[in-house]
Amino acid sequence: MIRISSQQIFSGGINRLQELNTNLNNTQQQISTGKRVNKPSDDPVAAARILKLDQELSRVETYQRNVDLADNRLKQEESALASSIDVIQRIRELTVQAGNGSLSANDRRSISSELEERLGQLANIANTRDASGEYIFSGFQGSVQAFKQEPDGSWTYQGDEGQRVLEIDDGVTVPISDNGKDIFVKVPAAVTGEHSNVVTANAGISGVKVVSEADLSAAYSGGFPDDISIQIDAGGNIIATDSQGGNPPVVPSTYQSGEPFVVAGVEATITDAAPGAGDIFTLKVNEKQSVFGTIENLISGLNSIDKTSPDGQAAYDDLVANSLTNLDNAQESIILKQTELGGRMNAVESTKTFLEDSSVYSNEIRSQLQDVDYAEAISNLSFQSFVLQAAQQSFAQVSQLSLFDRL
């Protein structure tokens, strides 16, 4: 015979009521929070998977912030470069206008004045700042103004040659900045000539221009030399020697004063040089010139060159021609950078789409594991409430029973 004491009855009843009440409270908590798993004990396996999914979502959110930052920086740079191309195009139009031989001195001064305004506009674009106030073209030195105007009016680069990169996914980085030196300063300059070793005072070199880019590239496929020296020997032959030690052919090879000749695709004309006099003329074929320097030289030339003499007219024509070449090179340099930016922006956009898809997928899985089914939870709550009430009534009746009632 099993004996059941009153204490056992009370203890069992209370434990059962506590159990039912706990289940009811858990269901109420699920409904109020909308989560099926509120603590690990609710579902240990699901809780572990939810924790990993939370970590994954946190990682994705961090990279999404980086993607947004990269996208904003690249779009701002792209906009600045587009604006700079517009300014340079207007400067080019003014340069073509300046080449009109019928312009008066006042007309040239008027063009020079607008060029000064456009130069300042271009400098403002090159000194663009981001939302945090940093200069986007200063390399790593974001707090340093990219281009500063010196007391003589020239613009010089103040930043470094660094390029910032940002990680936008595991193992995926993208450059988010470009230094102004590579874009605005290291611009290939027009080929020019100078009388570098002067023996004959009235000798000069003029009309220097590239007439065959294919020939120039073919002559120096491994990289352009810094310069090509031109001399005329005692026999009246034109001898060319480049800084790499080579001797590119000259056509025609016999010197005639005032007659053009071609060296590796570069045409030039030497005048009044006595054969074998020891004069050396230098063709600068690998020079770099800041786009600011090009505009500054153009402004200076418009204001100072006297076109009344043949030499002055020739110098003016060379100035206009070289300026147009340099401006075209500057535009090409910026367009190449825009193309590079487009590739980066495509990479950022692709990564952004991937991260969004990953976030949606992870959220769906987490929702399946964590979110409560309200219809089921409310049904359970009603059933648990009914069971608890029945248990409470049963316990109340049983607790009133006593052996002494039967005596």
TrEMBL record:
Query: Which ranges form a coiled coil?
Result: 17-80
State the family it belongs to: Belongs to the bacterial flagellin family.
InterPro entries named among the record's database cross-references: Flagell_FlgL, Flagellin, Flagellin_C, Flagellin_N
Give an example GO molecular function.
structural molecule activity
Write the gene name. Answer: flgL
**What are the alphabetically sorted keywords of the record?**
Bacterial flagellum, Cell projection, Cilium, Coiled coil, Flagellum, Secreted
Protein name as catalogued? Flagellar hook-associated protein 3
Q: Which Pfam families match?
A: Flagellin_C, Flagellin_N
